Amino acid sequence: YYSLADHRVIEALDILREMLADLLAQRASLMGISG
Fold it and tell me: What does the domain layout of the chain look like in residue ranges?
């Protein structure tokens, strides 16, 4: 069972992972354009 804190941590990690994926996608497209 999850405590409220655990739930918040999991949510934050989810958001972080999405942001990282966005960053990587942006960087990949930039590299693709410049390369």
Answer: 1-35
Residue keyed to tokens 């409220």: 4
pLDDT, tens digit (0-9, with 9 covering 90-100), for 1-35 = 678 899 999 999 999 999 999 999 999 998 887 65
What is the secondary structure of 2-35 as a DSSP string?
Answer: --HHHHHHHHHHHHHHHHHHHHHHHHHHHHHHH-
Any idea what DSSP says for residue 1?
A: -
Task: Name the residue with tokens 């405590």.
Answer: 3
> Of how many residues is the chain composed?
35
Question: Given phi > 0 = left and psi -120 to 50 = alpha, else beta, which region is 16?
Answer: alpha
